[in-house]
């Protein structure tokens, strides 16, 4: 019941308790970092919906246990209209008797989703104040798109908006937050709506300029779908005199390869000299033994979200070259990783940006020549070895030749 409802082992979570000791996995040099003694106290917003009680309380206590008291003004909990019993009176009672004065609980009257939930939490927060005077433009710069629903796309939207409108996003390697990555989402969206598509459309129409056509080339069925009123977001972009999406691609994310006649590479605005890719263990073409054809991109190997198929092997074609690294990632032409959706396990594999977190991009290629996907527990197989379409799929491992692959020079 616990695994079905929460998509992780709740029994073990309950046994862990509310306080958990964890090793410090940061680089040793982080211990030598010196920070200013006077810093503004922060409000931390935690949104939840039908979360396991023990996981929620452990999250709250991890913040309290590991944050210097003078830097933590408050924790704002946002309950996104949960319907489980233990998150009602039991949670109220625990907070009142154990965390009164430290945690503020806000309950949404209807399901708002992660994006608007964060905004609601921020509106109730009273910490993080400084003696600086913030302009209206500053406040708009850091506000999520309230027209986005539930979950998905807000991470891209905030990146596009901040960089294009004159701000910067910084990675702080000595500050880490743990995240439970589940093999599936244990809860859906109200009415079963595709919120990722809705949010992505808003993102594309507000920020991507002519490059939104690249998105519609991948998702043509979304071209005429309604995405709500974006006039306020467009007005914010105009008022802040934000740069073009082409500028973003040229200066902030030059690694993204797009098929555009005017997309000429320019020196990036920053260089991450500390980036270290996993060691490559093997390179070559990935040949299916039954079809005697090689796994390639159906379109371009730089097309994020693109499908893979088997085609005639060509030893001189660099776009057929796969790299298999120590993280068990399969990378095509040095660009994108072979990825398997953990939410829609019936979908075929696709090419996605390498995230380095294993799971959906973790493959084992052993002596039996099977290509096993760790997250879904299935093997890659050629659908019809004689078909020119060359489709591949994931299937229960059975040792058949359709599931036999060799990575060869």
TrEMBL record:
One of its GO terms (biological process) is protein O-linked glycosylation. CDD domains: beta-trefoil_Ricin_GALNT11. InterPro entries: Glyco_trans_2-like, Nucleotide-diphossugar_trans, Ricin_B-like_lectins, Ricin_B_lectin. It is found in: Golgi apparatus membrane. Its cofactor is Mn(2+). It is a single-pass type II membrane protein. One of its GO terms (cellular component) is Golgi membrane. Pathway: Protein modification; protein glycosylation. Keywords: Disulfide bond, Glycosyltransferase, Golgi apparatus, Lectin, Manganese, Transferase. It is an enzyme of class 2 (transferase). Pfam families: Glycos_transf_2, Ricin_B_lectin. Residues 277-408 form the Ricin B lectin domain. GO terms for molecular function: carbohydrate binding; Notch binding; polypeptide N-acetylgalactosaminyltransferase activity. Its main location: Golgi. Its EC number is 2.4.1.-. It comes from the Eukaryota. Belongs to the glycosyltransferase 2 family. GalNAc-T subfamily. This is Polypeptide N-acetylgalactosaminyltransferase. It comes from Denticeps clupeoides. The gene is GALNT11.
């Amino acid at each position: 019941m616990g695994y079905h409802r929460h998509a992780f082992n709740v029994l073990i979570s309950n046994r862990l308790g509310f306080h958990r000791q964890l090793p410090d996995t940061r680089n040793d040099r982080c211990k030598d970092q010196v920070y200013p003694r006077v810093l503004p106290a922060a409000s931390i917003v935690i949104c939840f919906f039908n979360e396991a009680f023990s996981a929620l309380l452990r999250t709250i206590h991890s913040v309290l246990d590991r944050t210097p008291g003078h830097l933590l003004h408050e924790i704002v909990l946002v309950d996104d209209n949960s319907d489980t019993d233990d998150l009602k009176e039991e949670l109220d009672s625990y907070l009142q008797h154990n965390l009164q004065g430290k945690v503020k609980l806000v309950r949404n009257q209807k399901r708002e989703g992660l994006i608007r939930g964060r905004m609601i939490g921020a509106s109730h927060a009273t910490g993080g104040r400084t003696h600086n005077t913030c302009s209206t433009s500053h406040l708009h710069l850091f506000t999520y798109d309230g027209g986005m629903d539930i979950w998905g796309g807000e991470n891209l939207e905030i990146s596009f908006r901040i960089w294009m409108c004159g701000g910067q996003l910084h990675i702080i390697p000595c500050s880490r937050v743990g995240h439970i990555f589940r093999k599936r989402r244990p809860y859906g969206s109200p009415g079963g709506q595709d919120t990722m598509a809705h949010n992505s459309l808003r993102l594309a129409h507000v920020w991507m300029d002519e490059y939104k056509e690249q998105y519609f080339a991948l998702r043509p069925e979304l071209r005429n779908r309604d995405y709500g009123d974006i006039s306020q977001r467009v007005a914010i972009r105009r008022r802040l005199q934000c740069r073009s999406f082409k500028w973003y691609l040229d200066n902030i994310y030059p690694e993204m390869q797009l098929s555009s006649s005017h997309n000429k590479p320019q020196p990036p605005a920053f260089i991450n000299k500390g980036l270290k890719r996993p060691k490559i263990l093997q390179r070559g073409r990935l040949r299916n033994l039954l079809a005697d054809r090689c796994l390639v991109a159906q379109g371009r190997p730089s097309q994020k979200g693109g499908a893979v198929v088997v085609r005639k092997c060509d030893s001189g074609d660099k776009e057929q070259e796969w790299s298999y690294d120590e993280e068990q990632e399969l990378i095509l032409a040095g660009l994108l990783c072979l990825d398997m959706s953990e939410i829609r396990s019936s979908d075929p594999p696709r090419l996605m940006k390498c995230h380095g977190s294993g799971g959906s991009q973790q493959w084992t290629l052993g002596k039996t020549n099977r290509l096993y996907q760790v997250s879904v527990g299935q093997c890659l197989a050629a659908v019809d070895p004689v078909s020119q379409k060359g489709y591949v799929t994931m299937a229960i491992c059975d040792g058949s030749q359709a599931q036999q692959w060799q990575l060869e020079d």
